[in-house]
Amino acid sequence: MRENTDLKGKRVISGLKGNCIVAQSGGPTAVINQSLCGVIQEAQRHEEIEEIYGARNGILGLLKEELIDLRKEKSSTIDSLRTTPGAALGSCRYRLMSWSESSKDFEKIIEICKRYNLRYFLYIGGNDSMDTANKVDEAAKRMNYQMEVIGIPKTVDNDLVFTGHCPGFGSAAKYLAISVMEAGRHLESLYDSEAVIILETLGRNTGWLAGSCALAKRSEEDAPHLIYFPEIPFSLNKFIKDVGEVYHKIGGVFIVVSEGLRDEEGNYVCARKDRVSTDAFGHPELEGISNYLKEVIESQLKLKTRTIKPDICQQSAMHFASKVDLEEAYLVGREAVKSALGGKSGYMITIIREKGRVYKRRTSRAKLSLVANMEKRVPRGWINREGNFVTRKFIEYVRPLIQGKVDIDVQMGLPYYSRLEKRKILAKK
Amino acid sequence: MRENTDLKGKRVISGLKGNCIVAQSGGPTAVINQSLCGVIQEAQRHEEIEEIYGARNGILGLLKEELIDLRKEKSSTIDSLRTTPGAALGSCRYRLMSWSESSKDFEKIIEICKRYNLRYFLYIGGNDSMDTANKVDEAAKRMNYQMEVIGIPKTVDNDLVFTGHCPGFGSAAKYLAISVMEAGRHLESLYDSEAVIILETLGRNTGWLAGSCALAKRSEEDAPHLIYFPEIPFSLNKFIKDVGEVYHKIGGVFIVVSEGLRDEEGNYVCARKDRVSTDAFGHPELEGISNYLKEVIESQLKLKTRTIKPDICQQSAMHFASKVDLEEAYLVGREAVKSALGGKSGYMITIIREKGRVYKRRTSRAKLSLVANMEKRVPRGWINREGNFVTRKFIEYVRPLIQGKVDIDVQMGLPYYSRLEKRKILAKK
User: Could you give the 3-state DSSP secondary structure of residue B4?
Assistant: First the structure.
């Protein structure tokens, strides 16, 4: 039995001595390894935690018994991961069935947790991953296995509920803003011959990333000129009208579209129907919204149009990441370990923004069961009346999240991104 | 009459006193404004040069008599352009007919040159633009109008002949390399669910940019794994075989393709036939090579594939530009003014790389008539035997060109890119 201190500084009792497991799940972000390092470095400070294991490729690593001994890594390696994009442990998009559908996976997971005496289960991911963490928590309780399960928020989509924002989002927003700013300058040089650019951002159901591109704009002529959100039903006629109006006013048009635009009936404007293209969570693959809109503009407005698709570059651009984002990703990793030690199983760490002009935040917790599979959309009042740009409120929300420069170790013109050195999977028990 | 010093320090006589005109043409680069600043700041040092004009949108600015008085700009504005992407004067893709086709444009241009007493004509651009500069030079000679015409190399494509490399290329190469490096880390986290990435670079006839992505690779598992060049006839069967082999060896495949891949008959694999899509120089618009290859991989290999298309971001990414590139872009701008004053009309400034291990360069000159419309391709020996990656020679060539960090003025998380302040077109004479 030992005493710990909870988030509010209250001392709590946690008697659990055992091993810790950490895993990364879903699409990586530039800062997902910050959270991993936060977990590892905080876990090293507590004597209740004996071994620190990493699961390869999220929950799959537990199902396949593919664990890595993270205490074997040099502390300099762990530190260098802090500015390395991609998920250092590997990630997955595996969906656990519910207990009532099949308890097979859960029995396997809990059996392995027992075998390795895993008592602290830290899971870094987005809303699908919080569903996984929640199900593991419920399974452990159902099977009377004492294990503290804590979720660590991570998603460029910024769509997790109960948290003010999500680690990963600020860096992606910053990268998209600089991309729009720079490509906008390029475009305006050539309005006479290439009048329109469409940049397609991630965001299948929410327009947080698309809206963040507005940070690039400081004057009317600056890109972007139009932004389209999944939250606002997309009308092709209105779109053509918008583009034509901006063109006549400015001479060129920089458009940002979220990949997941939906029509009035709520159907994706561009969803593929073939089999290869549905992921494990049943999300259809969205493709070609920018190419589709390019065709429309070229045929209807006769304006030459180019498309930019940064795709996973917006999830991995450590070279222009946000320092605030990095720090927060590390913070939620550390807080997750503290919460686990405080016996707060079944929660995700959240970031709460204090009111006021100066940006201040604190961490808190939300129940995994309430976070799992839910989505936070951009409030209607943060999108303009026309539905084609953000309001000042959106900008005030996002600007603090892109602040601060991250120093990365650049040698010979390019960074040295690291990898875990002892990546060998442990021999099965 | 005054004495000047030529490139080799020899004193030469140039009696021409008059005004200078500078213009930017073709696709901008991150560093095209460096060359502009080089021209302006060097021109300010010489008393033979009275007014310094900028033409709006390349040669179109002369044809339409749209000139800007660059002496009216504050020196701090000119300085701030040095780290601003896009063409500050505006660019164009206008093709001058040959004199035998029609002398109309030339008569107009020379008439305006006379009216404004333009005696130094500096034209920043790629091979199409050198064709323009060459034709203007020939027209001036034909019409007995004394004007020194000098071309300033600029192209991310790096395909100008007689120069070791082209300003703009190093920064684009560096940006693509970091993008591949970061996206590669992302991809390897998710090999289980998203096995293949195709990144599409610019380069319709040459693989300089595609090949530069190899800088991202330091070990076998690092991206990129395969690179395809316009210089090597593209075989779909060979491609499928290559991708399958890398997948079985590594578990995932990061592919870089140049937009302009051609089949065995020399036809573009993906050329659009519709009218909107041919530019003024008759180049067909190339589109969708990455999307096309994604379809092929998904249908034939059943591997989920994503595409990245940085498009004009690779031409404008000042935030991760190469310092060597910036310095050289400035240098060729200055040298162009010196050459013009030395009476060397009809030349383009070139960058000659000295032999030896340490990177050293000097400037020289090549005749515009020999540079115009020509293309330098990647030597066969710089591409591996399989035709799907570069050799060490390519890396040795490109690595020095991406060196050095550029400090940009970042405020509130994003740079302040500037514009010319006195952009007002002069009243017509």
Answer: strand
Q: Which helix (H) or strand (E) holds B9?
A: none
Among all residues of A, which ones are annotated catalytic? 157
Question: Does A396 lie at the interface with B, CB-CB under 8 angstroms?
Answer: no
Cα→Cα distances A178→A310, A318, B110, B264, Å: 12, 13, 41, 40
Supply B366's token pair: 């090549």
Task: Select the residue of A90, A179, A316 nearest B313 (Cβ to Cβ).
Answer: A179
pTM of the model: 0.94
Single-letter residue type at B42? E
Cα gap B244→A363, rounded to integer Å: 46
The one-letter amino acid code at B332 reads V
Q: What angle do CA B195, B200, B205 make, to 5 degrees?
A: 140
What is the distance in angstroms between the Cα of A67 and the nearest Cα belonging to chain B?
Answer: 15
Q: What is the DSSP string of B405-420?
A: BPP--EETTEE-----
Residues of chain B found within 8 Å of residue A275, distances taken between Cβ atoms = none
What does the buried/exposed string (b/e) look like for B157-183 if buried means 16 or more CB atoms within 10 Å of the residue's CB? bbbbbbbbbbbbbbbbbbbbbbbbbbb
Helices (H), A143-271: 169-189, 208-212, 236-250
Q: Does A250 touch chain B (CB under 8 A)?
A: no
With an 8 Å Cβ cutoff, are A186 and B318 in contact? no
Partner-chain contact B311 A309, CB within 8 Å: yes
Residues 6+ apart with CB under 8 A from B57: A192, B23, B66, B89, B90, B91, B92, B94
- Show the tokens assigned to B95: 């093709």
Q: Which of A299, A298, A273 is nearest to A287 (CA)?
A: A273
The answer to whether residue A81 neighbours chain B at the CB level (below 8 Å) is no
Those residues with Cβ within 8 angstroms of residue A426's Cβ, 6 or more apart along the chain or in another chain:
A53, A67, A68, A69
Continuous segment of H or E residues that includes residue A423: none
Encode pLDDT of B267-323 as tens digits. Answer: 888 765 543 445 555 665 656 899 999 999 999 999 999 999 999 999 999 999 999
How many residues comprise chain B?
A: 429
Give residue A193's pLDDT.
Answer: 79
- CA atoms of B394 and B371, how far apart (whole Å): 23
Which whole number is the average pLDDT over B230-243? 97
Taking chain B, what is the end-to-end CA distance rounded to the nearest angstrom? 28
Per-residue burial over B189-217, b = 16 or more CB atoms within 10 Å of its CB, e = otherwise: bbbbbbbbbbbbbbbbbbbbbbbbbbbbb
What SS3 state is found at B178?
helix
Q: Which of B182, B190, B313 sits opposite A319 (nearest CB)?
A: B182
Could you tell me if B188 lies within 8 Å of chain A, comparing CB atoms? yes
Task: Please answer yes or no on whether B190 and A307 come within 8 Å at the CB atom.
Answer: no
Q: How far apart, in whole angstroms, are the C-alpha atoms of residue A147 and residue A165?
A: 27
Choose among A182, A191, A413: nearest Cβ to B402: A413
For residue A224, whether the previous peptide bond is cis, meaning omega lies within 30 degrees of 0, is yes
A26: exposed, middle or buried (C-beta count within 10 Å: 0-12, 13-18, 19+)?
A: buried
DSSP string for residues in A82-134 = TT--S-TT------PPPTTT--HHHHHHHHHHHHTTEEEEEEEESHHHHHHHH
Q: Length of chain A, please?
A: 429
**Mean pLDDT score, A184-210:** 93
pLDDT tens digits for range A147-176: 999 999 999 999 999 999 999 999 999 999
